Automatic annotation (TrEMBL):
SUPFAM superfamilies: P-loop containing nucleoside triphosphate hydrolases. This is ATP-binding cassette domain-containing protein. Signal peptide: none annotated. Residues 2-218 form the ABC transporter domain. Keywords: ATP-binding, Nucleotide-binding, Transport. GO terms for molecular function: ATP binding. It comes from the Bacteria. It holds the Pfam family ABC_tran.
């Protein structure tokens, strides 16, 4: 899909903010990049999106890209619908019928005609997200997409990411919260001080349980345990999935879902 080899970046004559980054994004894969503020995540995504150039190294591949930048420019007077039509035409779309259902799905407050500059941060982010997915990209690049969105829209964003993967396209997104990255990514990379490393390649299994009484966070092989109402969603190293399921059944939990979440 896209391959970065030895990519480095410095702004002007400053120090390098990216060092020797190698990254291969496979089709149908969701790549999460986890890193703290200022570690270089946005710089890397801008290079992948083609809006910034690498100082060193190479970027190979020319997928159709949808890009949600870290600061979506929402200062325009035009409304969301008009803006998305405009962006769609620029990107060569002739059928613009997907715009209204997409805005409806994202529950844009103020409706499709509210001027973009009057939208809240979260609602502007929704328009940014809409312009990125509208073009049905081969590579969807999302810079901190979960930040600023309300809980209902979190779920929609998760669906949009899943749908993108399901049609064989790829997603690369950033976040600074490990849980968000692990919940949504097939492959996780860590960004620290401009250096990118693969977290590890061991596949994980998503296990959803209903019940109570076990402290799953301390169970061997459990990477994350997230309570969701009466259920708990576990991200488990694949090699430990059987043991975790056995423990769950012994402890009286009901198994609701078991699925691979890392490929
Ligand atoms: N246009 C620019 N000119 C000069 N330096 C820049 C520019 N953009 C980013 N930097 C610097 O590059 C480094 C990496 O910034 P970047 O925005 O890529 O990090 P980030 O991981 O996305 O951070 P955040 O999570 O805060 O968005 C920082 O030291 C930042 O100050």
């Amino acid at each position: 899909m896209i391959r970065l080899e030895g990519v480095g970046k410095r702004y002007g004559r400053g120090d390098f903010v990216l060092h020797d980054v190698d990254l291969d994004v496979e089709p149908g894969t969701v790549v999460g990049i986890l890193g703290t503020n200022g570690s270089g995540k946005s710089t890397l995504l801008r290079i992948m999106a083609g809006v910034s150039h690498a100082t060193t190294g190479t970027v190979t591949g020319s997928p159709r890209i949808g890009y949600l930048p870290d600061r979506f420019p929402a200062g325009q007077r035009m409304g969301a619908r008009a803006y998305l039509r405009h962006m769609g035409r620029i990107r060569g779309l002739t059928d613009l019928s997907a715009i209204d259902p997409l805005l409806e799905r994202l529950a844009l407050v103020g409706g499709p005609t509210a001027p973009l500059r009057t939208l809240s941060k979260g609602n502007a982010q929704k328009v940014g997200l809409a312009q990125a997915v509208l073009v049905r990209p081969d590579l969807l690049i999302l810079d901190e997409p979960w930040s600023g969105l309300d809980v209902a829209t979190h779920a929609i964003l998760g669906e949009l990411v899943d749908e993108t993967r399901a049609r064989g396209a790829s997603v690369v997104f950033t976040d600074h919260r490990p849980q968000v990255v692990h919940d949504h990514a097939d492959v996780v990379h860590l960004m620290a001080a401009g250096r990118l490393t693969a977290e590890d390649s061991e596949p994980t299994t998503r296990i959803v349980l209903r019940g109570h009484g076990t402290d799953w966070a301390d169970e061997p092989g459990v990477r994350h345990a997230v309570a969701e109402g009466a259920q708990v969603v576990l991200t488990v190293e694949a090699g430990s999935a059987d043991a975790v399921l056995l423990r769950a059944l012994k402890d009286g939990w009901s198994v609701r879902e078991v699925a691979p979440c890392s490929r």
